[in-house]
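2024-03-11 09:14:02 INFO worker-7 job=invfold-0412 stage=load source=structure_tokens
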């Protein structure tokens, strides 16, 4: 039973100010059905609004739906005291004014019948068809008796899944919530606050993402009044004090009309006052407001090209504020919104914000998915769909593609299946909806990924590969290697790199970089199944002899058998730790203190430093012995078992580890420095290739700097 339905004997509370003429609707509902062949007077205004958008619509199904709804809800009253039928009528009128097609209006009239009356889904299906039945079922709440405290979150989950197949489900829910918010004043304050918070956290972001700005802005104002009454009253008083602000904008609008008329551009110029929340935000941003800050100009034209023509004329005849220019026509928002935004200053210095769009863009900007009608077919039986919407959204196969399905809604439907419990789903849903901007990144194969702004390579990996992204060891962003923590920008090309080892998995650090619920749920689930991976791993201890082995440290260790200085017989020959030369490298030797000779690779920076100090080189050459030492530096993305896999690759290649240094990870990158003994220097290239083949390793090079002590 809906919270709005109550017994006729219940005391009537204070009536809230209604946006619609509820008393007129109530009286019409009490009069009962109209004579056969006539649309009942109670939905006459609904029919009128519907015919304004769809002149050829068949109203017979609306009449039958009204008769069933009225008879089913008869005897039920809202807490405002009005007959309950006024609620579905008001919801239907909201959708009719937005241009919804007949099937949506039919379902909206019946949206509470299955939940609050004896009508069953089978009856709805038998009388109105599968399509209407699906919409009614989609918005029907789950019973608290069965779900307890989880009823509301699970109801939203059910609605979102239904919305994935037909966005009209959420259209009806938004209109339903708007009318309930309009009449929320009869509720207890604590219940008002609870409903307002859910509306703020879930319904308003959904209205924004579905592009239904007409509903979103009014919901914002209603929530603002309940949750921030003092700020609301301050804003209301500010608007009342500046009631003549419309005159300032009207004067600018007249100048714009004159400019466009002289340029031969047919356009409609309107003044759009800002709603309460918009005024509040502008005041917080700019401080004191001028007259033109209380509204914006809306310029409506016929064609896309006319939008840019208007923009050119405005920027020519007025002073443009370039920082305020945004082109949402060339790059539409992910919620279907298209428009040009600019701001111009007149000769008196007054700045006016201007929105420029076509009439079709305006219909979609206001009504969003409601203006698109049935998302799955391009041709409906009653001619439904906003004018031009079919052309804009038709696919190559003749079917209209729902423009919201491939993006955020698809991601939401994917991750909600993995949400293990209601609490995780509910908190993840609110976090996901809080991301109010979206970016598009390109995959290496030419496809695209839609991600929330601020997403990282971690998010891209899970968006592209799902749970297979557990094996991700890094990524290439715009062709360059990047850490998984790298934040992506709009238009970036990203290629996640996966390890061949299926046993590898994410580290707890990934949660710090994951913005999408899909990534966070997948990572959390893997870590829960592999608790040992969640424990921080201690870095490998540095060997005590590491420094002396890498730098020579005065120890010959057979080095004189590897390299010799013919001009200085008996001198101790050391291989420089900064470049660790091995046969057949070209080498240069320099005498140092103690009568020793240090051998450097020919391209080592140390050679230049020695020459700059006035040291004269001496001839050195490789001896006959094949055994040698070399220091290699492996650059890698941090992951579990990396050290074990690298040392295994080194051992398999026939090299012995003399010392190893593992530096602390930085931005998920780690540096491993190994001093190795090879039986044959000819095996060095193969050794380096084997180390590079280890998952997560993106570079292996010879040491060019002294090893750390």
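2024-03-11 09:14:09 INFO worker-7 stage=emit residues=709
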């Amino acid at each position: 039973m809906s919270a709005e339905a109550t017994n006729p004997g219940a005391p009537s509370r204070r009536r809230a100010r209604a946006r619609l003429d509820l008393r007129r609707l109530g009286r019409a509902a009490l009069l009962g059905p109209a004579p056969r062949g006539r649309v009942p007077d109670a939905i006459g205004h609904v029919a009128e609004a519907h015919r304004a958008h769809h002149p050829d619509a068949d109203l017979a199904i609306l009449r039958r739906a009204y008769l069933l709804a009225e008879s089913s809800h008869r005897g039920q009253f809202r807490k405002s005291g009005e007959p309950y039928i006024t609620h579905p009528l008001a919801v239907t009128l909201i959708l009719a004014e937005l241009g919804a097609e007949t099937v949506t209006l039919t379902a909206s009239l019946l949206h509470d019948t299955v939940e609050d009356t004896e009508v069953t889904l089978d009856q709805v299906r038998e009388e109105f068809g599968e399509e209407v039945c699906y919409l009614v079922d989609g918005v029907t709440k789950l019973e608290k008796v069965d779900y307890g405290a989880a009823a509301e979150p699970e109801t939203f989950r059910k609605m979102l899944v239904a919305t994935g197949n037909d966005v009209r489900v959420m259209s009806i829910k938004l209109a339903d919530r708007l009318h309930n918010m309009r009449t929320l004043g009869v509720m207890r304050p604590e219940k008002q606050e609870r409903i307002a918070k859910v509306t703020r956290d879930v319904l308003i972001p959904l209205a924004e993402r579905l592009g239904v700005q007409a509903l979103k802005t009014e919901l914002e104002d209603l929530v603002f009044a309940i949750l921030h009454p003092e700020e609301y009253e301050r804003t209301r008083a500010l608007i009342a004090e500046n009631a003549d602000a419309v005159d300032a904008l009207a004067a600018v609008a007249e100048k714009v009309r004159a400019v466009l008329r002289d340029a031969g551009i047919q356009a409609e110029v309107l003044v759009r006052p800002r709603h309460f929340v918009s005024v509040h935000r502008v005041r917080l941003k700019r401080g004191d407001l001028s007259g033109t800050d209380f509204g914006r100009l809306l310029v409506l034209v016929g064609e896309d090209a006319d939008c840019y023509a208007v923009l050119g004329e405005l920027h020519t005849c007025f002073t443009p504020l370039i920082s305020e220019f945004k082109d949402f026509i060339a790059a539409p928002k992910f919620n279907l919104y298209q428009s040009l935004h600019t701001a111009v200053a007149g000769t008196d210095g007054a700045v006016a914000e201007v929105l420029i769009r076509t009439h079709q863009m305006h219909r979609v900007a206001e009504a969003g998915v409601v203006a698109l009608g049935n998302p799955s077919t391009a041709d409906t039986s009653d001619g439904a769909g906003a004018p031009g919407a079919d052309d804009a959204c038709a696919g190559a196969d003749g079917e209209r593609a729902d423009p919201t399905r491939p993006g955020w809604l698809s991601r939401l439907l994917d991750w909600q299946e993995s949400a293990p419990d209601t609490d995780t789903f509910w908190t993840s849903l609110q976090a996901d909806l809080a991301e109010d901007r979206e970016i598009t990144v390109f995959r290496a194969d030419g496809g695209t990924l839609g991600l929330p702004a601020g997403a990282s390579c971690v998010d891209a990996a899970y968006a592209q590969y799902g749970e297979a992204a557990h094996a991700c060891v890094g990524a290439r962003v715009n062709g360059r290697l990047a850490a998984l923590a790298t934040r992506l920008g709009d238009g970036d090309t990203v290629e996640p790199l996966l390890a061949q080892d299926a046993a590898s998995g994410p580290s707890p650090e990934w949660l710090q970089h994951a913005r999408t619920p899909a990534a966070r749920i997948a990572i959390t689930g893997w870590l829960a199944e592999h608790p040992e991976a969640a424990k921080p791993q201690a870095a490998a201890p540095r060997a005590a002899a590491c420094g002396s082995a890498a730098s020579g440290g005065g120890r010959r260790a057979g080095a004189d058998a590897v390299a010799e200085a013919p001009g200085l017989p008996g001198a101790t020959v050391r291989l420089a730790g900064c470049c660790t030369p091995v046969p057949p490298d070209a080498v240069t030797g320099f005498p140092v203190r103690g009568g020793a000779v240090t051998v450097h690779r020919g391209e080592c920076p140390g050679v230049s430093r020695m020459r700059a100090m006035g040291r004269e080189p001496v001839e050195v050459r490789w001896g006959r012995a094949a055994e040698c030492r070399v220091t290699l530096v492996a650059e890698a993305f941090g992951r579990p078992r990396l050290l074990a896999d690298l040392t295994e690759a080194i051992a398999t290649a026939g090299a012995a580890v003399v010392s190893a240094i593992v530096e602390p990870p930085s931005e998920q990158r780690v540096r491993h420095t190994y001093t190795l003994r090879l039986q044959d220097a000819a095996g060095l290239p193969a050794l380096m290739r084997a180390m590079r083949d280890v998952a997560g390793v993106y570079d292996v090079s010879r040491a060019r700097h002294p090893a750390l002590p």
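2024-03-11 09:14:09 INFO worker-7 stage=report msg="The chain has a mean pLDDT of 78."
2024-03-11 09:14:10 INFO worker-7 job finished
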